Structure formats: structure tokens, C-alpha cells
Amino acid sequence: MLRAYFAGSILMLLTIALIPLQAIAVARNWAIQRRIPQFYHRIACRMMGLRISIVGAPPKQRSSLIVSNHSSWIDISVISAAAPVAFVAKHEISQWPVFGLLARLQRSIFVDRQRRCETKTVNEKIADRLVGGDPVVLFAEGTSSDGNHVLPFRSALIGAAGDALIRAGGTSQILLQPVWPKN
Q: I need a surface site. Which of 10, 111, 122, 125 has the fewest CB within 10 A?
């Protein structure tokens, strides 16, 4: 119990310290805006006692659409600790206290699943990030599950990889990287 209190206190202090730095980095488009969340999540995983094991080699290039299943909120920290990523998240998260702020500061791309007409706009945002060299994580099942099996994909947003190739004029590669976090 004492360890949990200590870990929670450290994470709270770290969060309070890094929020202003990340806000400035995002506002000024500094490159460190990608690394601050990664540093934060590495510390968070360590404080939670999580050991991250990566099987296979992550792609050397940064322009990757990472397609993953989603078991729990821990997936966010584990994937973020492994790479400087941005997430595609449901719009409701942007409205959540604390977590909404953290998601916005991690430069998440929000999608309103009730408004399918926005798929093209969201694909454009994802494509812009990919062309800019950002790895983007898409939980293609559109929801979380127990992680023991793969749910049907909501594939409309995977098309952003094709949009990115068109925007780059065929001069770059966009990788589709499958990921399966196991809790």
C-alpha cells in the first residue's frame, strides 16, 4: 500500500511538472513534444511495476500507422513508453477531466464515432501526421476487449495510410505496423 501511495505521488508530481513543458512544446512545435510523453510513460510503467518486452524490431522509419488491439488503459502507457506516438482516440476522451488534457497534450487525433461523415477529415489528420513523420496508433477494433482474441476491425481509418502516400507524392513509405499488447 505504501508503494502504491509513493508511486501515485511521484506520478502526480511528474504530471504537474511536465504539463506546462509539454504545452509549450506543442504550442511552439518543438521536436521534444514527441519525447516528453514517451519519457512520462516510461516512468509511469516503471512506477506501476510493468516490464515492457518488445518482440521483433520496431521500424526504423517513423512514418508508421500502428494498428493494435486494445485491452485496457495500460496499453496507452506501454505503447507510449516504447515509441513516441500519437493516438487516434474517441472524441469523448477529449472531454474527460485530466485524461482529456493529457490526450490532447500527447497530440491525439479525436474521432467522433457517431459522425461517420467525419471519417475523411480524420483520415486527412492522420495522413498529415504520417507525412510529417509521426507514428500514429490506431486501435482498429474501435473498442477495448479482454485481448484474448481480435474483434472485427473498423477499417475506414486504416485508409489514412493510403492518403498519406498520395500526399507525399509517392516519395515516402508508410508502414502498417501490427501490435498486440499483452497484459
A: 10
